[in-house]
Design a protein that fits this description.
single chain, alpha/beta, 10 strands
C-alpha cells in the first residue's frame, strides 16, 4: 500500500507540473496512423478528379538519437537492455520476465494472448473490437476489468502496478508513464505491416524464436496461396473501408496492402501509389477518402471492402445499416467487380490486420474468394 501511495503521489505531482492530461475517448476506434479516423469525416474528398482527397497522418520522426554503447544505461539484476531500430526512445532497461504488462497496441495484446498471458490493462477500443476479431480470446479479454481509455488514463495505469508498458506514442503520455514502469514505445511504422509490429513486440518480450516460427508459418501459407492462384500478379485487387462517415481506399503501404503485396497480387492503378506519389495525386497517403461520385476509383478485378468491428450494439447497428444502404448505391452497382459478383464484404479484421492472427484471417479470405480453396497449412496455434 505504501509503494502504491508513493507512486500515485509521484504521478499526481507530474500531472500537476505538466498541467494535467486530457483523456480523449474515441467513439469506435482511435484516430491513429493505424487507420483512417472513424469519428471524423475527411477534410476533402475526391470528386471530379482523383487529385483531391483526405489527409492522413505521417509516421513521427524518431524522438531520440541512437544511443552509443557508452551512453547506454546499466541495468540491474533481473533487467536487460532493450534496443531496436523501431524503438522510438533511447534504449532502456526492462524486466527480463515481466509479470504485469500494460499493452496498448493490438499486435502486442495478441502476442501476449498467444503466449498464454493476459495483459493487466489495455485500451477500451481494443476490448471493444478484439473479442469479435479473435473470439477464441474473448473470455480472457473479458477478465480485463479496468479499461484505460485512449490515450491511457495514467491514474488507472498506476493502480494496476505494471512492471512493463508496451505502447505507441499516441496511446499514452510516455514521459509521465515512465514514472510508473518502463515504457517500450514502438515507432508508428509498426502499424503498417504485421511483421514489423510482431517482431518488435516479440523482441521486447524475449520471444524472438517464437516470432521466427510465426513468420515461417505465414510465409508457408503465402507460398501455398501463390501456387493456388497461379499468376497472382494478373489479379488487380481493390481494398476499401466503408463507414457512415467516410469511404477510403487503402493503399499498398497499409496493413492489408502489405499482405496483398506479399502474395504478389496487383492493385488497380488508382490504388498503386505510395509515399510522395500518393501525396502528389491525392494530397494524402495510405488512406484516401473518396466521395460516392468517385467510386470508380474503387473498382478492380475483385473488391474487398469492410467496416470496423464493435461490440457496442448501437455502433454495430449504425454501421451495418449504412453498409446495406451503400451496397444499393447506383454508382456502386455499376462497378465491374460488383456486376461480376467479385465484390466481397469481409469482416473487420481487414481493418486491423496489423497482427499475425488477423493477417492470416485475411489470407483465408483470399484463399476462399480468389483461389476457391482453403489453405492446407494451419495457422500456428498459441501456447
Amino acid at each position: 500500500m505504501r509503494r502504491q501511495a508513493s507512486m500515485l503521489l509521484l504521478l499526481a505531482t507530474l500531472l500537476a507540473a505538466c498541467g494535467g492530461q486530457q483523456a480523449a475517448q474515441p467513439t469506435a476506434a482511435p484516430a491513429a496512423t493505424a487507420a483512417p479516423a472513424t469519428q471524423a469525416a475527411a477534410t476533402a474528398e475526391a470528386t471530379a478528379a482523383p487529385e483531391a482527397a483526405a489527409t492522413s497522418e505521417a509516421a513521427p520522426e524518431a524522438s531520440a538519437e541512437a544511443t552509443t554503447a557508452a551512453d547506454a544505461p546499466t541495468c540491474k539484476a533481473g533487467e536487460r537492455l532493450f534496443s531496436h531500430k523501431l524503438l522510438e526512445t533511447a534504449p532502456l532497461c526492462i524486466p527480463e520476465n515481466p509479470q504485469r504488462i500494460v499493452a496498448l497496441d493490438i499486435a502486442s495484446v495478441e502476442l501476449l494472448l498467444m503466449l498464454g498471458k493476459t495483459p493487466v490493462l489495455t485500451a477500451d477500443w481494443l476490448l471493444q473490437e478484439m473479442p469479435l476479431l479473435l473470439p477464441q480470446y474473448a473470455e480472457k479479454l473479458g477478465t480485463i476489468d479496468n479499461r484505460v481509455g485512449y490515450p491511457a488514463e495514467l491514474e488507472k495505469v498506476a493502480l494496476v502496478k505494471p512492471d512493463l508498458i508496451l505502447t505507441t506514442s499516441d496511446a499514452i503520455d510516455v514521459k509521465l508513464a515512465s514514472a510508473i514502469a518502463p515504457v517500450v514505445v514502438a515507432k508508428a511504422d509498426v502499424y503498417n505491416d504485421w511483421k514489423l509490429g510482431t517482431e518488435f513486440w516479440a523482441e521486447a518480450l524475449n520471444q524472438k524464436a517464437y516470432y521466427g516460427e510465426m513468420l515461417a508459418n505465414y510465409e508457408a501459407r503465402v507460398a501455398e496461396l501463390r501456387a493456388a492462384l497461379g499468376k497472382p500478379e494478373d489479379i488487380k485487387v481493390s481494398v476499401m473501408s466503408v463507414t457512415s462517415e467516410v469511404q477510403s481506399l487503402w493503399m499498398p503501404d497499409t496493413p492489408p496492402g502489405t499482405i496483398l503485396s506479399d502474395v504478389g497480387l496487383s492493385r488497380p492503378e488508382a490504388q498503386s501509389l505510395v509515399g510522395d506519389e500518393a501525396k502528389a495525386r491525392y494530397n494524402a497517403s495510405q488512406y484516401i477518402s473518396i466521395s460516392k461520385e468517385r467510386l470508380d476509383l474503387a473498382d478492380g478485378d475483385a473488391i474487398f471492402y469492410f467496416t470496423y468491428a464493435s461490440t457496442d450494439p448501437a455502433t454495430a447497428a449504425k454501421e451495418g445499416d449504412f453498409v446495406k444502404s451503400f451496397q444499393q448505391d447506383p454508382i456502386w452497382l455499376k462497378l465491374g467487380a460488383v456486376k461480376n459478383n467479385k465484390a466481397f464484404f469481409v469482416p473487420g479484421y481487414w481493418w486491423r490486420s496489423q497482427s499475425y492472427l488477423l493477417a492470416n484471417l485475411v489470407l483465408d479470405d483470399l484463399f476462399t474468394n480468389l483461389a476457391g480453396s482453403k489453405a492446407t497449412t494451419p495457422v500456428l496455434a498459441g501456447r
